[in-house]
Structures are given as structure tokens and as C-alpha cells.
């Protein structure tokens, strides 16, 4: 037995060892050049942005594991980054940079996308590539081989091929309007694009790397639509509409789209509160969570000002009906939102507070756990892994 054991040990030692899968993580874009002050928003110089990697292996107690300097922005929706389904690669778009004129700083469109190797220790920037002007929301397909980037000023969507750590532009398609966010259907045959200024959701046909904009399928949702997600079964698309003037004190909506037919249609609008900045659908498709800014981004002298935001919880029925279940308090200027890998927890970025809030799903309620992870910057965006 001793001889056999030695031989087996030798065989095991000789066998190649598969690389361990990276831990479950969130990417958090930290903006260091745009600030919400009592007097209102103001911009500052470039060079202070960063990317935080947050380990959520313990879902109730996320842990900051790495921070690297990396340009990104709060301008546009908080979905400008995502992790590939295998957890090994992160994509991060830089929407704008600042240009100085006299004593003031003004935003101008950037066109860069950062590729980050999350399997490296520590994570490292592989390269930065050029996409469309003002790249904002992005999405990665379940295959892990295709990503789409919505370009606001470019009025287009860029398709990217992914192979290992190599990311390359394969096509850019005109979508006839500012494109703020994009979401890919689970079967990989369609994608949806939020055309924020038009207040519509567009439809893209996907055939491998080929992307075609189907102009005749545009759907009216609401003013300044940003948040966008597709249910895991592909039946529903939810779109968050921030309103004509964000943080104006007036209630805004989440639109419900039935997407399981040749012609997707808007079936309902759910009242959600002032400025639903971002939304996410749970891994099991039964819940959705919405980051609601309310008046926290308004100047303090504004009648619409509120000191804090909220996290709203939506229920999704088996028949596709969506209803508002309730909400929990959040910090100032809520931005990105994401479910934990199991769907039992929700994470929300509180921009002004520089924290990541942790919430627990208890049946039809969402409960603040009291855990707020301090971050070394203002959390402008927040995403985990793309679904497998």
C-alpha cells in the first residue's frame, strides 16, 4: 500500500492543475472628478478615478480586496463595467474626461475601454482600447465571448469579441440616438438599448459578432431612460426612467416590456419615486431592485432636495406581472446596484457617502443590514459577473 501511495502521489504531482476560478467579486468604479455639493454639482481635474474590486464570497460582509487607478466616470448610467461569466476579466468604460476653461471644468466625451485581468494577483490592466464616443453602459453575453458597449455621443453600439484577455472591436452599429445602456437577452439572439434622450428602448438582432439595429421595433418608455436589465428567462425587460429633470421631486417610473415575442411591447409602468438611477433583476428572476436617488443630487436649497435615497424592491410574478413590494433607506446619491451571486443580498453604491450598502431579501421585503463598506472614493458604477 505504501508503494502504491507513492506512485499515486507521483501521478498526481505530474498532472496539470487547473487554474482556480477567481472569487466572486464586484467591480466598483470610483469617480474622483465630479462632486455633489450643497451648492450643486461641480467638476474637477482628471487623475483621481479608480477601480475597486470587492470580494463578495461572504455575501453579507463584502470586503475590499484591491484598488487600482483607472479613469471612469459618474456621467451616464452606472453600468459602464462588468465581469465576464467566468470571473476572469473585467471591462470598464471611461465615458468622459474633464477639460478646463478658466476656473471651471467641463466634461467632454472619452472613447476608451479598459481591459482588466481579474485572475492575476493582484488584478492588472491588460490594455485600453478605443470604442465609440462617450461609452456608457455595457453588457457581456452568457458565452463570455461577446460584449456590447452603448456609446452616448457616438449614437451607436460597439460589438467586442472576447478571447482570453484579448478584447477587440468587431463592429459598430448606428442606433439613431444617444445610447446610454445595453442589455443582452439570455439566448444571445437579441439585445436592448436604452436611448435616453429619445425615451425609447431599441432592439438589436445578434448573429454571432454581427449586430443589426431593428429601427421599427423602438418602444416608448419614459424620459431619460437609463437603467436596463433582462430577466433570466428572457421574457421581460425592465427600463428605469429618471425623468425630464433628475432629482426634481416628481415621481418617475420603471417600464415593463414583454420581450418573448417577435415584437416586444411595453405592458406596464411602475411608479418608483424620484430618479430611478439603476436597476437589477435577481438571478432567479423573481425580484428586481432599483436604486432611487430621490432629491439627494439636487442643491440643498432646492425644494426637491432630500438628504438620502432609497432602494426599492419589485416582485416579478410567474405571469410576468411586476409589482412594487416596498423600499429601504439608502445613502446620498445612490448609483450602481447589484444582487449577490445567490440573490439573497443587494448591494448599492452611495456616491456622496462613499459607501457600499448591504441589504437582505426577506420574502417580499428588503432590509438594510447595517453593513456599509467604506470605499476609498465615490462609487459611480457597480456590477458583478455577467450571468452564465
What topology emerges from the helices and strands here?
Layout: H1 2-14, E1 25-31, E2 34-37, E3 40-43, E4 50-55, E5 63-69, E6 81-83, E7 89-101, E8 104-117, E9 124-130, E10 135-140, E11 146-151, E12 156-163, E13 166-174, E14 181-184, E15 190-195, E16 200-207, E17 210-213, E18 219-220, E19 225-230, E20 236-241, E21 252-258, E22 265-273, E23 276-281, E24 287-292, E25 310-316, E26 322-329, E27 334-339, E28 345-350, E29 355-362, E30 365-374, E31 378-383
Antiparallel strand pairs: 1-4, 1-31, 2-3, 4-5, 6-7, 7-8, 8-9, 10-11, 11-12, 12-13, 14-15, 15-16, 16-17, 16-18, 19-20, 20-21, 21-22, 23-24, 24-25, 25-26, 27-28, 28-29, 29-30
Describe this entry's structure for a reader.
By secondary structure, the chain is mainly beta. 3% of the residues lie in helices and 54% in strands. The strands form eight sheets. Strands 14, 15, 16, 17 and 18 form a five-stranded antiparallel β-sheet that branches. A four-stranded antiparallel β-sheet has the order 5-4-1-31, with no helix packed on it. It starts with a helix and ends in a 5-residue tail after the last strand. The model is unreliable at 1-18 (pLDDT under 50).
